[in-house]
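JOB MANIFEST
job_type = single_chain_structure
chain_count = 1
residues = 675
[input]
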Amino acid sequence: MRVVALVSGGKDSTFNMMQCIAAGHTIVALANLVPHNRTEIDSYMYQSVGHEAIDLIAQAIDLPLFKKETLGVSVKRGRTYDPCENDEVEDLHSLLQDIQKQIEFDAVSVGAILSDYQRVRVENVCIRLKLTPLTYLWQRSQEQLLDEMLKCEVDAIIIKVATLGLEPKKHLGRSLSLLQPHLLAMHEKYGLNVCGEGGEYETLTLDCPLFKSRIVVVDSEVVMHQNDPVAPVGFLKFNSLVLEFKLPPLDLHARLEGLPLKDSYGYVNQSDSEDENLTHHHNLDEVDSDASGDCSLDIDFKLKSRLIQQENYGFSKEGWLWIGALQGNSTSSRVALEEAISKLKSVLEANNHSIKDICSVTLYINDMSEFVHLNKAYIDDFPHVNPPSRACVEVPINSPVIIEALSWKNSSEESKFERHTMHVQSISHWAPCNIGPYSQAVHVRDFIYLAGQIGLVPGNMQMIPGGIKAQSKLVVRHIDRVLKGVNSGINVRDVVQGICYVTHSSYIEVARKHWETKTNNAIVEYVVVTGLPQGALIEWHVWAHKYNNQFEYEETGKCIGSYSICLFRRLNYESNVAAIICRIESAGSDELFENDVFKETVEYCIDKLKHGHESDSECVYNLKVFFSVVKFEDMTPLQEILRKFAENMCLVYTFVPVVKLKHEHTYLSICGVRN
């Protein structure tokens, strides 16, 4: 892509440009917001100190520079941003819009590392202008990032300090390479952000491999902004700066040669304290022998369930609204989706909820080739900021679409709980950005509902090569990083329940082994489906709980005639939540299934979910029933059994046809939650 780089003069915007080039993009111009009074301003968005060097940086890189003045006024300071007159964000919009009129470009380079405030606002501007934000430093370990910058020959000096542990007269003007040990020591002692992301310090890049010339400081002075005895604030004012041409003259390729710059795959393969190297004992250029994803080995594609379902729902006193079995039956996929969403809106309205209250959506579709068209229709109904998380899988069903949804609304105006959403639209090396109208995660109360995760390389949004082993490892990494992004104290070990969708039964064992090495008693169902987005071999759809370590774990079961019932349960008494996965199996694979077995199994599941709350009539029970289309032709009798249960309790349910379940002799699997 052709990229315009937002530059402040500091190390982050500079190194993000280098990352863009390493990822295969081309920097075509620089853009800068200039403080209106040509002095340091307290902007929430932009670094203004060191602005005197911006023109020299453009000359050093030999690229056109576009500038616009800003007052640095922040009118809207919330978690989200809508266009607001006189806000400094609109200065950026105006600047990029002016550049679009003069040159052609597709993306914007942004040096954000941790600031959601900055990222959200730049994303807002870029999406409005149909540009792609590139934030390759996002969520990087600051210790690793600083070390990488220095090893890639970014020569930057500190030009502003505002924290305990850094002194204006002692540290201003000193290079980061010399101060690295001190910054690490202050991080250990005071919690200082090593890259200055907490506003502790700001920098000016004097030289880097992108520069044909280096900047030389001829004359500068220290300006004390605040003489605080504990954490004084001061910055450098540059009176004279000059460019010094670097010899011998080299082209950009030669200047970058030999540096430890990694492309998008390099960051996927990076091994650190929290992530396993995906290429360990596995070459990504080699494809697993079982990586074809050929579902025809498992099922005749003509074999599809003729399931017809009626929507049902239930709500809890804590504001949760579970909605199941929203089926669109038109022969047109788009019309069928509109039918299902129309039913969804009716249920929401009947319960005083709105489309903006939805936390999580699952789409079951019968033709993944229709996904692009369905996505366009879906976005018409979810155009708002911070939409729900979403999973989408292809299943063997005759109707085009079935939808499940979970909504939450404050049950009281006095409630202290809020909804927090992670909706990252920038391309980075962190985790996949949104490729549709959904969020990576929605956090309500102590629950975190993640979008379905597939093996996309974050930096280029392409499927990782290497087959099921590489995809399994990368997806688990995505889950871990998204959860940590929602809350630094939460990770993949806090997943309570999940569903692993695969496109071939031979992938299940690979996925299971890797998952169980990374998690803590999460209960999981593995099902074989006919297709996944982007041709993925595996998709994980999970939810986590802030206090997963307080959940009990139980494996239990019983026999009903010739059938064995295996049940796995997670139970949290304190938070009034329980989750189960229950399988009905029989050694006789050709045995005619007995409906009474299903009835008794459902009773067993509900009893296990009720445990400790038998007298609570306000609980909602949500059941997702996976069944193999090879073993069942008509689900009507089983639907009738659940309908009768729902007459006497708040039960929400959806039947989901799949190719196969975890074991060859599994007839049904019930994934349930009580809330």
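[summary]
The first strand starts at residue 2 and ends at 6.
Residues 115 and 154 are 22 Å apart (CA to CA).
exit_status = 0
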